[in-house]
Amino acid sequence: MKIAVCVNYVPDTASKININEDNISIDKTGIAFVLNPYDEYAIEEALKIKEHSGGETFVISAGSESNKEAIRKALAMGIDNGILLITRNELDSYSAAYALADEIKNIGADVVLLGKQSVDYDNSIVGQITAEILNYPCITVVTKLELDGEKVIAEREIEGGKEIVETHLPVVITAQKGLNDPRYASLKGIMTAKKKIIDEKPIAAIDNFTETISIIKPAPKQKGRILGSDKSAVKELVNLLHNEAKAF
Amino acid sequence: MANNIIVFLEQRNDIIKKSSFETLCFAEKLNSKLSGVLSAVLIGNEIGNLEEIKKYSSANILFIKDERLKLYSPSAYAQALVKVVEANAGDIILFANTSLGRDLAPKVSTKIKAGCLTDCVAIDYEGNELIATRPVYAGKALLKTKIKTDKKVFTLRPNTFPLSPVENIKETQIEILKIDNLDFSIKVIDLIKSSDKADVSEAEIVVAGGRGLKSAENFVLIEELAQALKGAVGASRAVIDAGWRPHDEQVGQTGKTVSPKLYIACGISGAIQHTAGMATSKCIVAINKDNDAPIFSIADYGISGDLFEILPALTEEINTIKKQ
Ligand SMILES: Cc1cc2nc3c(=O)[nH]c(=O)nc-3n(C[C@H](O)[C@H](O)[C@H](O)COP(=O)(O)OP(=O)(O)OC[C@H]3O[C@@H](n4cnc5c(N)ncnc54)[C@H](O)[C@@H]3O)c2cc1C
Ligand SMILES: Nc1ncnc2c1ncn2[C@@H]1O[C@H](COP(=O)(O)O)[C@@H](O)[C@H]1O
User: Which of A25, B127, B142, B176 is the most core-located residue (most Cβ within 10 A)?
Assistant: First the structure.
């Protein structure tokens, strides 16, 4: 079995975002980048599948040289091989997915795991697009995964409940929190990862389907009113909610 | 600009969702600026509230009716939609950004070689171009993006685009379609409801509790207030991680994005990962004993005090007003 995990490298959500003067990019200095949090669930699931059914694991990231950090983290957790699809250009979800799909075909992966969304742009579409390009079935926002021979059964989160979805290999899965508890990289894992060679492959053609027009800061919210510090403020609050904000 | 719009109306348990009607209302407005045809597509078996469509739109109604489509099948739904888009020369395809919409829209978009933008909070014409606005970086910035392909797919954030009934709707047509050789290679075989309560992401009012509640038992205070307001219960990640509440109530970056009319945050500090999921709520109330809690910086109204004292009084006052 060949298992591929796609990972993204994104600003830590706690970082302060400053917009450059061009109004279409952010100032990356001083921002801490991290492995996209949802991708950790995808990595963990790949490791679990290998432990259970055997096989070989691959981590792929499409982007710039710095994405190697995300790949290293996956290698440190225990993934066998790292591949960087490198470009200096901006990739949108489509270009990223086309590049990933090419490499997944190359590997011949039976199971492809991604996070449910990147926490920078929150698109949550790369998994679905990649699957369509590969013509693989795709189950998104998965909280439980079972492989039984060729059969795949997954639970996906929906409003007010869960759907149990059935399909077959090869498959693309996007991971949601709850799928598993990602392991910490061991010291030995970190040392091994440092020595591993990450396979670098240039992305030939980039064909973005979307184009950024601008990034802006949301208009600052007017400072709210503190109505008091105990229950004596409740009457006024209810009155304001009912009559001023018409919120109920 | 001849632009045909196709809106996907999502049903669950044979009832069309409110967020789909919101999407339809937006489509109706967009259509009035264009010279194309507006169609609304439904996929399912029996639709209980089909007539409601006419309250909001005079779209042509295309109903793909098949018993097997009562439950979601990503492969069959995508295939059916692509057929409809092709047969009706659809240019702009709209979905509500629900769990189903977000799963399906990019699959359809890739099949028809269109770009897709998800979770849009605004879509406007700037000159001749449709520009979508989406919150990014945990809500710290807004990204304006255009789709470069001829066909365009968007998903719209629920509770963001207003429901606007139209008067004097012209007669609409309902066309029942059958599609042969549907692909069920991937399908939902069972649906497990976690409760009968409204989901946080769909509720008009959300009462959310954080670590300040101190225990699972104390959430009864949140439940009672939610009940008084006929709203849903939400929670911060700290609460979910402690096992006090189920994961499907988590609001925030790793949980659900909500945009209700009223969001009451109780004993929640307002970490960026939490506010990422609720900052676009229309009215935000914060109850927190710490004057400096970041939640106050995005709240419209606040009480900086002890929630154990304030919540029972608040529930009582709301019940009193509601009885009047
Ligand atoms: C990758 C990542 C993803 C995350 N995703 C999410 C997410 O989706 N959703 C989310 O919520 N968090 C998320 N977090 C966690 C987030 O950073 C915060 O840790 C979390 O939101 C804190 O929850 P809290 O506000 O309930 O708890 P705390 O920060 O501990 O706040 C408790 C608050 O209660 C107040 N309080 C205490 N007692 C009382 C009282 N008696 N009366 C009134 N007020 C009282 C305190 O003043 C305090 O402000 C994420 C973190 C990371 C790193
Ligand atoms: N540039 C990329 N390289 C590798 N994987 C990616 C890339 N962008 C997104 N992904 C994967 O796709 C998932 C969904 O991302 P998105 O659609 O951008 O929200 C992420 O959790 C990653 O697993």
Answer: B142
